[in-house]
Design goal:
This protein is mostly helical. It has seven helices and no strands. The protein has one domain. The chain is flat and about 45 Å long.
């Protein structure tokens, strides 16, 4: 029961937004030293997305589809990210460009997951896309992103079923 509450949609939104803010913070402050931050975030987001389906499958073995669908979805996103990093390692993409492309793939994968799971994943995908735009074009954006994340978390908290 405790794991089920820990894996609630609101808690997963909170975790994803906090991870997104951590990635944005690291990208902002250590721009030229953290080339693989969004690769790590892609693996973390994949684990967070697959965990509820795995937990549900583990306790209700007949519901294999709830585990396989997100697993295949995120494996596809991870394959694309690994190809991008292969391009980066071969010199076809610069590190800063590759990181932004990986961030966009993460945003798109999260957004498309939201088509199956609900508005919280859609919002997280849009939030990641906003981070990609901010990283590429603005000098100061962390405070505004934190404010937006807090508003989304509060909205999600009051919107969740009782």
């Amino acid at each position: 029961m405790y794991k089920q509450n820990l894996l609630s949609r609101h808690n997963l939104l909170t975790l994803r937004l906090c991870m997104s803010l951590l990635g944005a913070y690291l990208d902002y402050h250590y721009l030229h030293r953290t080339h693989d931050i969004w690769l790590v975030m892609m693996f973390l987001f994949s684990g967070v997305a697959i965990a509820p389906g795995y937990y549900q499958f583990k306790h209700h073995a007949g519901n294999l589809n709830s585990f396989i669908r997100p697993l295949l979805h995120w494996m596809g996103g991870l394959c694309v990210v690994l190809i991008i990093y292969a391009y980066q390692r071969s010199g076809r993409l610069y590190h800063e460009e590759g990181d932004l492309v990986v961030l966009l793939v993460l945003a798109l994968t999260t957004y498309l997951e939201g088509m199956q799971t609900g508005w919280r994943s859609i919002f997280t995908g849009l939030f990641l896309g906003l981070i990609a735009v901010c990283v590429a074009y603005f000098d100061s954006y962390i405070g505004q992103l934190i404010a937006l994340a807090v508003v989304a978390i509060l909205y999600s908290y009051y919107r969740q079923p009782a």
